[in-house]
């Protein structure tokens, strides 16, 4: 009897401990409980009969204003929160820095709409218009690189420079990645756990794991505990489809603005990599090759390569990346 009592008490405290841990780790799907370093504002948008909010940071120069602006486009699995060191460095050099969370990401609305790079680009132009910014350099990382390319193609007169940090879309994934529809991808997204997310980040983003990267996992995994996670997962699947179905690689030749590529040579990112056999994976996503091929396609493009660096140079080799960025912005 006494043994059963202690087991009951132990079970009770175990449940309470797990519940507290989950409560601490649970994040809303609009990241209200994730603090960005700079104040977050919202641009109101109406699309497909829905009222949406586009979150952004507008950071003033902390040094003498040089009269120039930079807009930062985040990758698919991130939001404005992972740009902090880049924002600080740019503002310290006199730049105004505008950092949107794209619709469907970060603190912005998780809308059930048709996602397109054309529409996202138009909303970013609308953001610049609302802020009275006539021209900006655009730095896009990963999926943000695909968006930055589309923005530069649509609005060359508003793009001072196109800066691409390990952009995805350097290949046409439709040519070698098997097609899966949004519903199939949604079911895959629903299976995400803290463990699977960390494993993916370790294998896909960095050449060596550092403790500070755990914060990225905490945010990405935190939303999986939310009761609204199915909405997050659905939007993630919809934007996966956007990336797959809307390549920009065939239009690199049409870019008319000064372009710089910042490439971590150890990056092997492929959208839909898990759908490929190991032998097929080895044929694609080789950024040490793709960087040079892409620079050759873009008129007048400059290529800067980083050794021993993977998918996110601004986090893996921050000092080296920021030095290169400041010299070429």
UniProtKB/TrEMBL annotation:
Signal peptide feature range: 1-21
Keyword Hydrolase: yes
Domain AB hydrolase-1: 70-316
Highest taxon listed in the record's lineage: Bacteria
Keyword entries, A-Z: Hydrolase, Signal
Entries under Pfam families matching the protein: Abhydrolase_1
Gene Ontology molecular function: monoacylglycerol lipase activity
Any one of the GO CC terms: membrane
Transmembrane segments: none
Protein's GO biological process: acylglycerol catabolic process
PANTHER family registered for this protein in UniProt: HYDROLASE, PUTATIVE (AFU_ORTHOLOGUE AFUA_2G14860)-RELATED, MONOACYLGLYCEROL LIPASE
The protein, known as: Alpha/beta hydrolase
């Amino acid at each position: 009897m006494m043994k059963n009592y202690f087991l009951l008490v132990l079970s009770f405290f175990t449940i309470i401990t797990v519940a507290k841990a989950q409560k601490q780790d649970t994040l809303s799907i609009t990241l209200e409980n994730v603090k960005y370093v700079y104040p977050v504002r919202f641009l109101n948008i109406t699309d497909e009969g829905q009222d949406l909010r586009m979150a952004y940071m507008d950071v003033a120069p902390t040094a003498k204003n040089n009269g120039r602006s930079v807009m930062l486009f985040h990758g698919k699995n991130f939001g404005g929160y992972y740009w902090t060191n880049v924002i600080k460095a740019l503002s310290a050099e006199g730049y105004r820095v505008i950092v949107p969370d794209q619709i469907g990401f970060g603190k912005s609305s998780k809308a059930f709409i048709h996602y397109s790079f054309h529409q996202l680009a138009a909303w970013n132009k609308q953001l610049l218009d609302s802020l009275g910014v006539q021209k900006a350099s655009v730095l896009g990382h990963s999926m943000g690189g695909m968006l930055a390319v589309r923005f530069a193609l649509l609005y060359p007169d508003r793009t001072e420079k196109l800066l691409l940090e390990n952009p995805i879309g350097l290949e046409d994934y439709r040519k070698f990645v098997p097609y899966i529809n949004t519903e199939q991808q949604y079911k895959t997204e629903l299976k995400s756990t803290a463990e699977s997310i960390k494993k993916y980040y370790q294998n896909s983003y960095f050449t060596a794991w550092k403790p500070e990267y755990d914060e990225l996992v905490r945010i990405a995994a935190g939303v999986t505990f939310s009761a609204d996670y199915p909405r997050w997962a659905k939007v993630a699947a919809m934007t996966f489809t956007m990336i797959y179905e809307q390549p920009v690689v065939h239009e690199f030749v049409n870019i008319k603005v000064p372009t710089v590529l910042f490439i971590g040579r150890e990056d092997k990112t492929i959208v839909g990599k898990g759908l490929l056999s190991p032998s097929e994976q080895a044929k694609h996503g080789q950024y040490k090759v793709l960087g040079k091929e892409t620079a050759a396609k873009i008129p007048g493009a400059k290529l800067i390569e980083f050794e021993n660096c993977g998918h996110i140079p601004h986090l893996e080799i921050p000092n080296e990346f920021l030095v290169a960025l400041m010299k070429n912005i």
